Amino acid sequence: MIEEVAKIIRVQNGMVVVETQLKTACGSCQANKNCGTSTIAKAFANKTHELCIETDEHFVIGQYVKIGVPEESILRASLYLYLYPILALIFSAVCLQFALPDIQELFVIIFSIFSASLSYIYISKKLKLITKESNFSPVILGLSDTIAVLPSSEIPSKTIE
């Protein structure tokens, strides 16, 4: 289960709207001051994302909860979004090349990109329907002990004597 801490911002009938903080891995290495990726990550830092989660439990606005999504659902969605369009691209290029061996490469490339785009559109629509399944939806695991995860630069450290 992939877990994240979220803040409850709205409570509705059987639904809780939570807000999560988007985090990046940048800022934790020693090249932080000289890294272009770190600079770009700081520009997009402190972004939030809202999620609606169905629950029968009673929560109060402002509480921090731990939410989770099963790993297998993330892997399955990644498989759909990344692998299938690539397979459609390769399969369409090979099939067109065998069906019409004298065709120019430019037409094969255009057709392959078109078929990969169609498969991506189809799969993204399918994933929107699948996300309504319970195993794709985030669940509230319980109240959180901490309010936020501190960046490594703010974690207090002790020296060992």
From TrEMBL:
<keyword id="KW-0472">Membrane</keyword>
<protein>
    <submittedName>
        <fullName>SoxR reducing system RseC family protein</fullName>
    </submittedName>
</protein>
<feature type="transmembrane region" description="Helical">
    <location>
        <begin position="106"/>
        <end position="123"/>
    </location>
</feature>
<feature type="transmembrane region" description="Helical">
    <location>
        <begin position="79"/>
        <end position="100"/>
    </location>
</feature>
<keyword id="KW-1133">Transmembrane helix</keyword>
<dbReference type="InterPro" id="IPR026268">
    <property type="entry name" value="RseC"/>
</dbReference>
<keyword id="KW-0812">Transmembrane</keyword>
<dbReference type="InterPro" id="IPR007359">
    <property type="entry name" value="SigmaE_reg_RseC_MucC"/>
</dbReference>
<dbReference type="Pfam" id="PF04246">
    <property type="entry name" value="RseC_MucC"/>
</dbReference>
